[in-house]
Amino acid sequence: MCNTNTTKSKQYLSPVAASTLANTYDDSCSSDNDGVPTPLPASPHSSAPPSPRGSVIGSLGDNANISTATATATTTTAAAKKASSSLLAAHDDDDARGRLRLVSKINYSRREGDDPYADVRERMEALSLRDKSRHVYHCQSETQPQDDDDEGSEKNNFMVATPSSHHEITIFAAITTYLGYVVLIVTGHIRDVCANIFRKGRYFRSQSTTATTPNPPGHYPSDDFTKYAPLLKSWENFYTRRLYHRIQDCFNRPIASRPSAIISVLERVSFDGNKTMSVLGKLSNLEDEKIALSYQMGQHYDTTPDGRVVRKCLNLGSYNYLGFADDWDVTCRKDVMGSLDNLPSSVGSSRLEFGTTTLHRRVETIVASFVGKEDALVLNMGFNTNATIIPTLTARGDLIVSDELNHTSIVNGARASGAAIRTFRHNDASNLEFILREAIVYGQPRTRRPWNRILVVVEGIYSMEGEYCNLRNVVTVCKKYGAYVYLDEAHSIGAMGPTGRGCCEYTGVDPADVDILMGTFTKSFGGMGGYVAADRRIIAELRRECAGSAYHNSLSPVVCQQIISSFQVIMGKDGTLIGSQKLNALRDNSNYFRMRLTDMGLHVLGNYDSPIMPVMLYNPTKIAAFSRECLKRGLAVVVVGFPAVPILMSRARFCISAGHTREELDRALKELDEVADLLKLRYARSTFG
Ligand SMILES: Cc1ncc(COP(=O)(O)O)c(C=O)c1O
Known about the structure:
Layout: H1 7-10, H2 15-21, H3 63-73, H4 78-89, H5 94-111, H6 121-135, H7 154-157, H8 171-198, H9 234-244, E1 262-266, E2 268-269, E3 278-279, H10 289-297, E4 301-303, E5 309-315, H11 324-331, H12 333-342, H13 358-371, E6 375-379, H14 382-393, E7 399-403, H15 408-417, E8 420-424, H16 429-442, E9 454-459, E10 461-462, E11 467-468, H17 471-481, E12 484-488, H18 503-507, E13 516-520, E14 530-534, H19 536-545, H20 547-550, H21 557-570, H22 578-599, E15 612-618, H23 620-632, E16 635-636, E17 638-640, E18 650-655, H24 662-679
Parallel strand pairs: 5-16, 7-8, 7-9, 9-12, 12-13
Antiparallel strand pairs: 1-5, 2-3, 4-5, 6-14, 10-11, 13-14, 15-18, 17-18
Helix pairs in contact: 2-23, 6-22, 8-9, 12-21, 13-21, 14-15, 16-17, 22-24, 23-24
The structure holds pyridoxal-5'-phosphate.
The site of pyridoxal-5'-phosphate has 14 residues, from helix 14.
């Protein structure tokens, strides 16, 4: 271990900074990652060309190989065939040819045309097929348990998808997790009581003296904040102060680069025991030269062009699924920057007024044809799309049946609609059928009149579970009972299916059977905003009635161009194979990473072919420890705790990208293997982790 002489000066630093300081420079230290610094190596990424950095199946430039591999890997749909033929046909354009040459050159130089996963390809494809057949086609496999709970024979109609990743929290983890929260809450209350008794503390606000002294001019008794009911809810206030602040360095990390595979995370410090965090800025802000030196010698140390200290990390947390943040200069820059020549960055108006440009209409036409609907409406925020479209579609007298793990934007939209809300067990079509049948039999409460409309809301990929939707069965149940289907494809559009058309394509469901297709451009498309696609009649109505569209400034034309450019790449309309390479790379990278994490004995949630990989941490203390250990090792990860997930279900969530290379993923896996040992996370192997 290295000697660290910085204990005193460490005190004001955040735990992250402190962990950097554990890397205090010492000649005797080795260059391994055991808290030991190494001189900063020339970053292999700093000069990396802005190119698709992901993998490909088979030979890169060979269309035949791509289609063969795609055919073996996935079900070849008519849409896939159509897309690949348009891909082959689109080579006329000179500019496109130039780009294709550039990208191929870059790819060949990185990969030499090989399949980077050749050694594990067979196993990866088998695992993917296993999950798909269990979860999408619902084949009865030998390993699938029989259903024998309360709905009995109901379940035989719609076999509950039993994801291969279904993990129960171990009894030891459950007990220690509860214990962890008890200790944190009791300690927090003791500190609050002590602060009140001694009238001193980080969060103690002294009372004004209005009760005993006359008011100075201009002051009113009501200026005494103690006379008000607290604006912030007391439990949430307590939770923020005594639990969240302890680990807030793990959240809201500011970045100073694109959210590409390698990301620059700005270094932060805290001068008040993590109550507030500040960006460290330049190294000269540090008074102690030794600390400054320790930063400089850190393995992942770097600076922004204006000299601010950053950590160069492998990005495992952004929704950069198709890697547009990595190759933006090649794929989108020209058109996006060009759009600024003719159009402003904001149109300064809502769609109802002067907020529609040709680019808005182009995005809508492309989206509609991409997802297989007659028309689409684009809104400037994905969250808003759910929060304002659902209330436009439903009202009092209607029933919304929502998956219990649906995103908060859906929950907000459902609550705002005034409709009655029921939830069904996550991804469980049998339970959905049970709820629908009951709702139809009993009708509306009190009056017993039939529901005007029933809307079933599900997601393509569940963002905290990494699981895809049991869409075929959901659609079958909804058809049987005459309920409308609303599918949120925020994470699945562009990321799932042979041509990126999302959950319908992946699960083989006809888009005509899903009444409302919703999605966002913030994930796979590197843009902003959301869309809703449906029949022309419905979209026309939504265009008029939806408050989020009619009364909100419309999407920036620059963002529209980003969306159009990324769609052209995905659909192969730019005349290159970049889109299909990205889709293949995303699938390969995701499946490889999932396979290796599972091999490590971690509790990994979700399905193969999904780019989201939650890894269970359970214990609240492991949330911060995991995040800090990863940051120390140059991995930027997202950790999630209560209330975003149930209290026992804290997790880390990896988002894999087409922009990752196998080497990067291998490095991450090596580091994660160490962290898993350190934090005892191998719950699939031992009840104690
Ligand atoms: C399922 C789902 N729907 C909607 C949204 C909101 O999308 P946006 O972030 O684009 O506003 C998200 C965000 O991650 C999501 O996960």
